[in-house]
Amino acid sequence: MRRLLALSLTFFVAACPSFAAETAPDLRVSKDIVYRTGSDLTAYEAERCKLDVTLPAKSDQPFATYVWFYGGGLKNGSKALASEYCAEIAASFAREGIAVVVPDYRLSPQAKYPEYVDDAAAAFAWTVRNIGRMGGDPRKVFIGGHSAGGYLALMVGFDASRLKPYGLDLKDIAGIAQVSGQVFTHYTIREERGQSRYRVTSDEAAPAFHVQKTLPPILTLYSDHDMTGRAEENQFLIAMLKCVGHVETYSLKVTDTDHGSIGHNLRFNADPGHKAVLQFIRKQGESR
Q1: Beta partners for 145?
Q2: Mean per-residue pLDDT for 36-42?
Q3: How far is Cα 29 from Cα 18, in angstroms, rounded to an integer?
Q4: What's 87's domain CATH number?
Q5: 14 is in which domain, residue-wise?
Q6: Which residue would you say has higher pLDDT here, 82 or 3?
Q7: CA torsion through residues 162, 80, 50, 126, sign
Q8: How many domains does the chain have?
Q9: Rounded to whole angstroms, how far apart are CA atoms 281 and 137?
Q10: What strands, in cross-sheet order, belong to the sheet with 63-69?
Q11: For residues 63 and 83, what is the distance between their CA atoms, to the nearest angstrom?
């Protein structure tokens, strides 16, 4: 693992239901916790703005938490449809002492930018405010995701305005561990604007637009057989972070994977990506 991180440096509240429900005897799991409330919520917000929490079975001290967003191009997906790999990712990290929160979020075209980004920020804020009473350390809340989920994590972790409505700022993010996220303005947002998905755009809806020296620690994973242009986007992000003097920029190109498997394989403890995320969270957690 030491060799892995050395290589990576070259490119590295709503009422909460009881936690009695369990999908495995060694885990504590609660599903469909509401993270957005209020009389002005639409029916679609009420339907989608829920999350699942998987906690370690036992912990002698407050644990770190990883807020994980699944992919789907901002158009598709749910924690139910993605339950197999999302639940297994959550279980794999929880068994190693890290809680995992998997939120649903609104999707295009029923939602438009920035609504799904705001949902991601709200889910992170809910976690910071509530994980302490579940045994977690609110100072050690990490954020990440795969593909469109990686884009959401980057937007919340890069654009301070997203957390400001919740009384939080980027310093409240212990670190970002994202997998093959879109770095420029997401192609679904371009389509919402009537643009071609292949028109390269980097504006306030692009993580790359918000690159600065003082961002939280970042781990970026991408595949050696990623979708067309996605590996290059992530390499661009890594380069720009280094250009502005961001010190804790880590990355790993995961070989023998494609755009789907690099994210789904995080559920396997022997996966290089899983190991890199685990060590990143543990290392950054120690400094909080």
Answers
A1: 69, 178
A2: 94
A3: 9
A4: 3.40.50.1820
A5: 2-286
A6: 82
A7: negative
A8: 1
A9: 13
A10: 27-34, 50-56, 99-103, 63-69, 136-146, 175-179, 218-225, 249-258
A11: 23
Calculated CA dihedral for residues 194, 163, 218, 54, nearest 10 degrees: -100
pTM of the entire structure? 0.91
What confidence score (pLDDT) does residue 9 get? 37
Dihedral, 24, 26, 28, 31 alpha carbons, nearest 10: -20
User: In 3-state terms, what secondary structure has residue 271?
Assistant: coil
216 DSSP assignment: P
Give pLDDT, residue 80. Answer: 83
Q: Coil, strand, or helix at residue 36? A: coil
Tens-place pLDDT, residues 122-149 = 999 999 999 999 999 999 999 999 999 9
Give the CA dihedral 129, 130, 134, 136, nearest 10 degrees: -30
Q: Is 103 exposed, middle or buried (0-12, 13-18, 19+ CB in 10 A)?
A: buried
Note whether 210 and 158 are within 8 A (CB): yes
Q: Which of 33-37, 56-60, 215-219 has the lowest mean pLDDT?
A: 56-60
